[in-house]
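ugh finaly. both done.
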Amino acid sequence: MANNTTPKRVMAKLLHLSRPAKRVSNVVRTWLAMRSQKRRRNAGSGTPASPVITGLNLTESAGEPLYWFDVLVDFTFEQGSFPDGTIELYWSRGSQGWVENYVGAVSSNLRQLRHVRAFSDFENDDVRYWMRYRCGAGIVGPFGPVYQWYYCAP
């Protein structure tokens, strides 16, 4: 038989004293449930889609120096329920050992990005471009497929 050292009268008094805190616990419980529901709604959408480059176009760069070309990068992106963020563009060149370089970013609402003064009129090179979606530090999407092409100076 177990030896109970706390009398029943003291236990009843302790339970009676904890009842006013019940109102506070209901408020905390409600707040926690709403916070959890909000987190579930935000987390339920999974990973954002990756942007896909659909084409590249060369245009002459404006201003000095002469004989430089900009690259207009066209892409598609299914944003879904993710918040507005940025689309980041990266590139690498075969002549530079395929070292990854950050080009820039545009709003995720746009579908074209300009890479200013990407090539001169005096060079030929293999080039790779790829992109990803980012919204702050919290949501970073996967890189899209690499778009590779050979630039031949006109």
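ok and the 2nd:
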Amino acid sequence: MTVTGIETVRPDRRGFALVIVLLLMILGSALMFGAINGSLTETETARAGTIQRQVLVGAESEAWNALAAADVRALRYLPLGPVGATSRSDGNIVLNATVEKVDTSIVWIVATATIHGGSLAARHRVGITALIPHDTTDFALHPVPERAWVELF
């Protein structure tokens, strides 16, 4: 017996591979976008950390500079209260320092450093407590040995 005229019917699969390829391309694009976005976020976080370290070092440096530049001879005879202030700019960082006589032999120095860098800004304050020496031949302020340096927020 011979069979003739039988036709095999196949489902229409035209375009099926195209749909899979498009879905894989969309998935790959989403993964690439996530990787780029994560990288940019990490870069901004690292930049913010760097700026924070710069203002901390700047404020501490300015506080110690103000301590070294203080005129002890004049401080001995000035009344209690603010006795001096300095302000300067070093690149993109602004540094300020104030000296205040809080007792006949104690001085409080507060330094502030500020950076405005594009979308990021940082500010830090550091304080130093120092003693005015009783010896009139000593012309330097002396930081209090216990906890002379403090971070202020």
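summary for the 2nd one i guess: The chain has a mean pLDDT of 83.
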